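Action item from last week, closing it out:
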Amino acid sequence: MAEKRPRKNGQNLFKRKVQDYGVLDPSVPRDNIMETILHEYRKSDTELLRFTASDFEGKTYYHIRIYVRSQDFASKEEMWLPTKKGVAITLDEFPEFTKGLINLKEFIDENRKTDQTTG
C-alpha cells in the first residue's frame, strides 16, 4: 500500500504525482537528475514537443516528449508538464533511431514529389 503523506495547503497534486513517479520535468527539483532542453516547439497553445537530454544514475537518456500547459493551483504559475506521449532512448540506441528518422525523411520527400506531380 502506498505511503500516505500529509498534504500542504494548496499543494498541486499533479506536481506531487510527477515527483512521486519520477517523470522528468525541469520545473520539479530533483537532486539526482540533470536535464538539458535541446530544442522545443509548440504544437498548439496547450502542447509543445520538447527534445531533452538527462543524466540519471550515471546514464544519459535522450527524450522526445509532448508536454502540456498546466497551472499551479496555489501560485497560479504556468508550467509545462511531461506526458507519457514520447520516447526515451540511450546513446547505444541512437544509431538505429537515426536510421529510422532518415528513412522517414526519405519517405516524406518521395511522397511530397509524388503529391506535387499528381496534385
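Closing note: The chain has two helices and four strands.
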